[in-house]
Every structure is written in structure tokens, then in C-alpha cells.
Amino acid sequence: MKVLIPGALRSYTQSHEAAAHGATLDEALEDLDRQYPGIRFRVIDEQGKVRRHIRIFVNGASAESLSMHMQPSDEVILVQALSGG
Amino acid sequence: MSTTALLVSTRKGAWIFRADATRTTWEIDGPHFLGHIISHMVLDPRDQTTLLAAAKTGHLGPTVFRSTDWGRNWQEAVQPPAFAKVPEGESGRSVDHTFWLTPANSNEPGVWYAGTSPQGLFRSADGGVTWTELPSVNDSLKFREWMGSEKDGTPDGPKLHSIIVDPRDSNHLYFGMSGGGVHESLDRGVTWRVLINGMEVPEGFDFDVANPAFHDPHCLRICPNDPDRIYQQNHSGIYRIDRPSDHWVRIGRNMPSAVGDIGFTMTVHPRDANTAWVFPMDGSSVWPRTSPDGKPAVYVTRDSGATWQRQDAGMPAEQAWWTVKRQAMCCDAHESVGLYFGTTSGELWFSADEGLRWRCIARHLPEIYAVEAAVF
Lengths: 85, 376
Fold this sequence. Notes:
heterodimer; A: alpha+beta; Ubiquitin-like (UB roll); B: 376 residues; mainly beta; four-stranded antiparallel β-sheet; 2 helices
């Protein structure tokens, strides 16, 4: 599936877009981390929760959970939410 | 000719300032990690080449970066400090930021300690590439009780800080918790004992002085030439302890009453354990955390805290409402000791004569969190 990468994470991917595989959103993020080591921990904390100022959208809708099932045709968008000055 | 380097960590990135031994002119290298919140950047004194930087951003989670070429290239930790994942359904802690970095002694190359917010203690045995928890602190129900909740700390989270490795004995460790007291280990962090005797708690409340939860050490500094002596700037005064005594003495009582003895930071002379410097702040009423009366000054003691002298030559005489955070004052090891501090308003100040005269060597930086000096 296609993953759109926010500016804050492009130091990992060197691109605004990456490809990831997985049956769930969590697996897709794990796959992304295998390709770009360290990227997942910047987005997901050690308890498996999406960090406070990160939002994840799947096909334009807010992701319901990291365990949601994914299809190869899905598009994931990682977004930097507002976090102050 | 030696080089003096200042490692400046700020709310929006890191800078390295370099000067020759005369410390007359300073070259600026940076920003590194522009936009990252850098809590602490530290040089490994064992190789004088490796830098570690504790980083996060407003959006992204915490990590530690490592450079072996003085910041030309940075590599991210493979396993940054992180608490253990708890079983499904239970509530676990997550590291918000790594706050403090301390290299171990030369007999333990590659060993570092890190303190985090929420409060946790971590160790790396490979130069900061991977970090593991010290369960004696992080998993201890007693420590968790002393740490309290998010409300029991500074506005951006309670912090484990001032990790000290006794230069004579790598098994002998200290650290402070804001809040949660001062703690000591004699077995490299397997077991710990509380070290708060003599420390006072905020006045006007019915706090139990024997409970570490009510103690808020801001900064601990061990004296390099007399490691039995430690100075402490606390939420409730300035203290000194001379081991093996386990009793802190409130030497801040000898500060001018109009200034008081509240502050965040403290630094000690590299070769004279009787000399230490503080940067007092206004801790009255609602705790403005500014220089008292808008008149910033360093205070020095040359007699272990019996007397204090004001040092403000060169600083603004009035209407300067900044202060200095706990990691943001330090000294170098030159014959005439250089003193440095960074302000909450982004200014970097320097004295080449142990505090007698001050000059500002950088303005308009972001809020400064930490300043470390190195001579090599």
C-alpha cells in the first residue's frame, strides 16, 4: 500500500511517499520500520499508542485502530497534527 | 593550542560554539536538528569525539542521536530509551523525552546513563546505540510512589536528572528526581538508598520531610577534585553534602535574604571544591522563575557556602527577566576557569575570569535548555 510521509519524517524516507505491506495497519508500520529503521517509534510509542500529535488516515478517514485490516490498494497518510509554537 | 567547545541545546535545535584557548572569538556551528527539542547534548570525555543528543519534536517521539565526527553526521539510536510494553489492558508508561545524559567513567568505555520524563533511568553499553532500563528504578513500586503523577514535576513533565557516576568508583551512582528526592547506589544501580536527610520541603504545608515524594532537587554537581563533596540546588534552597555524612547542609541560608536561595542550576569549580556558582531566580509568590527583581546575577561561594558574593559585571542592570535552567550553566577546565550560562531568552553568556566580568557571546537563540563546555 502507499504511505504518504509528512515533512517531519522525510529524513527517514527521503521521499514524500513510501510503500509498505501488511495485513493490518500495525503490520504496515512495522514493515515501514524495517525499511526505514526508527520511523515507527517516532509515531507510535512503546505501549503501541499513536503519539499525541500524530494522526493516521486510511483512505481519507481517520484510522480506527492499529489493528484495522488493510488492503494492498489502501492509502495511508501520516499527518503531523497541531502541536503549538 | 587547545579548542574550547560549547554544546548548546535549545528548544529549537542545537549549536556548537568553538574558540581557541584565549576564548576571545567564538565560531558558530549550527543549527543542528533545527526544530527539534534538544534537551541535552553531551561530549564523551573518554574519546573527546562522540556526541550524544537527546531529541524530540513537537510531533515526533523521543530519540537519541549520536555523532562520531563532531556533528557532521548523526546516526539515530537503534533502540532509544523506552519503557517496557505492558500487557494488553494495563496502563503503561511512555517516554516523552530523554532529559539527561551522563557518560560513565573511562574504565567503562561506551557506557552512558540517561534520565527521562516521565522519570526513568536507562543505561547504554554501546555508546548510545541501544538503551535498556534499570528495573531497580523503573519497575520499583516505591520509586513509582515517589515519582507521583504528571502533576508532581515541572510543567513539561517530571524529570530524572543529575545522574552522577563517582569518578573513583563506577558502582557508585547518584541521581535526582523532580520530584522524588536524591538517591544513591553502591552496586551500579542494583539497589538504591534515599539521600534526603537535611533537605527541606516547601514551607507552609504539612509535608512529611522524610518522604522523598516531597523533595525536589533541581541540580546536583559532584566536585571533580573532591568527589566526596556534592552541591545541590533544590526547589527549597542550596545544599552541600560531604560524604560519608548523609546529611545535607542548607548553605543557601547564607545568601542575601533579598535574593534568596532558589534557582535551577549550579556548577562547581574543576579544581577547588570550596568554589561553586549558582544563578538565583525569583521563587516567591507565584514562582515567576525570573531573575530576582529583573536584575540577573551569578553568586559565587569560595568557602563551601559560608559566604556568597554577587557577580553581575557586564550583565543588564535592570529589566532583564530571564533565568537559567538546570543544565544551562557550566564551567570549563582552563587555568582561569571559564563560566558559561544560557538563558531562557536565548542568550549565551561567558566569563573568562571565574565570574568577575561577563559578556554575551550570542543572542537570539531559541530558549536554551543546556550548555556543556569541553576543552580538548
